[in-house]
Specification:
Blueprint lengths: L11 H11 L3 H8 L3 H8 L7 H10 L15 H4 L2 H9 L5 H23 L20 H12 L7 H9 L4 E4 L15 E6 L6 E4 L5 H18 L3 E4 L8 H14 L2 H4 L15 H12 L3 H10 L5 H12 L17 H6 L1 H12 L5 H7 L5 H9 L5
Parallel strand pairs: 1-3
Antiparallel strand pairs: 2-3, 2-4
Helix pairs in contact: 7-17, 8-11, 10-11, 13-14
Length: 388
């Protein structure tokens, strides 16, 4: 079919549904895709107006296949979106098109991983939830201590060690790209992460940040939702600072897991510069680096345990909010071949390469599963497979 040929039989209901879902008008869609408004209007009235190229633009914009708009009948939300997706959508109804597409992409990637494990002859019906552990909902401190022991975390911690400890429990951890691409959270978005609850292989998605401590806190915050609330959640910067409801539970759990009481006892408060909030970061930096947290998390824990007055934390927060954003321009990784490991984690990449090496999938499919990694980079990644 030539790209200038007009398409017959476009389902106008599905076009209208996509616009409603995205919260945009047909006029906005036409403007964004540089399609004449009259042309799109004819398509929305059931007339033949769109070319193949124009329909492809619309399909790509809404992260749908072209055939989606050719199928008869209305859209069934229960088949188009998973229960996990609908849960996130209910929590944040104003999710952008790009974020919606990202969530769907994460769900697809999870299914790819499970299919690869099945092809490799591995058991995939293995519950991850630690039902044998006592996680008292009313005692977050004890619950955090129990999970820290379950994960076997060392005191000297970095983000990769934390991530791998959780991945060993059959959870998938994805981290966004720091540069423009399919796996980047839009810069204008406040979303820091989300979690998708499944009985097997749940997923946590963490936004890449300059501070590994901030990434670690987001990771454990999302883990708290999966463990304590057994549901899917999407969280922005406000949620990770909330003092209410389930978000407060997740924040308290994360703080206690990353900085247990025994660690607080090691913070020398005799020389703590209480009156000088601008000196807090320097004073707490060594502890923060050792435990993979931000100085603020340690300060918040000190306040929770009434070792530092809450007014000092409030003054510190006011000062930090007055500072310019530390984020600089995002840059692509210099080692593109290893980027899939950073995004999808070692278990996922290992499953793709194992399936490739046992001829379960083609090289082209492996490339698609690994963020469209070029063939030469896949070969370099294979060379390091033994160290994954």
């Amino acid at each position: 079919m030539a790209i200038m040929e007009r398409i017959h039989g476009i389902n106008e209901e599905r076009l209208q549904w996509c616009c409603r879902e995205a919260g945009i008008s047909p006029e906005d869609l036409a403007g964004a895709l540089k399609i004449a408004p009259a042309t799109l209007a004819r398509a929305l009235e059931g007339e033949d107006g769109l070319t193949v190229n124009q329909l492809k633009k619309i399909a790509d914009y809404f992260n749908r296949g072209m055939l989606f708009f050719m199928e008869p009948g209305p859209v069934d939300d229960t088949t188009v979106h998973s229960a996990q997706f609908r849960t996130l959508e209910n929590q944040k109804p104003d999710l952008s098109i790009r974020l919606r597409a990202l969530v769907e992409r994460v769900e697809f990637q999870r299914q790819v991983y499970i299919s690869l494990l099945e092809d490799l002859g591995e058991e995939t019906e293995r519950p991850w939830y630690p039902a044998h552990l006592d996680l008292p909902p009313g005692n977050l401190k004890q619950a955090a201590a129990t999970i820290r022991k379950w994960l076997q975390l060392p005191e000297q911690l970095d983000f990769d060690t934390l991530r791998q400890a959780i991945e060993k429990k059959d959870l998938l951890i994805f981290v966004s790209n720091g540069y423009a691409g399919a796996w980047q959270i839009p810069k204008e978005s406040l979303v820091r992460g989300f979690s998708l609850f499944f009985d097997t292989f749940p997923v946590i998605f963490v936004r890449k940040q300059r501070s590994m401590g901030a990434q670690a806190f987001t990771l454990i915050h999302e883990l708290a939702h999966l463990l304590l609330h057994r549901n899917s959640f999407i969280d922005d910067a406000r949620d990770l600072d909330s003092q209410e409801g389930r978000e407060q539970h997740a924040n308290r759990f994360a703080g206690n897991l990353l900085v247990p009481d025994a660690y607080l006892e090691k913070v020398g408060l005799a020389g703590f510069p209480e009156a000088d909030v601008e000196a807090y970061d320097n004073y707490l930096r060594d502890y923060a680096r050792r435990w993979c947290v931000s100085p603020e998390v340690i300060l918040r824990r000190l306040v929770d345990e009434r070792l530092v007055p809450r007014e000092r934390y409030q003054a510190y927060r006011a000062w930090t909010l007055s500072l310019p954003s530390p984020e600089g321009p995002a840059r692509a990784s210099r080692s593109r071949y290893s980027e899939p490991v950073r995004i999808f984690g070692k278990p996922y990449v290992g499953a793709v390469l194992d399936a490739l090496n046992t001829n379960q999938i083609s090289l082209a499919r492996a490339s698609r599963y690994l963020d469209n990694l070029k063939i030469g980079y896949i070969r370099r990644l294979e060379e390091r497979h033994a160290h994954l």
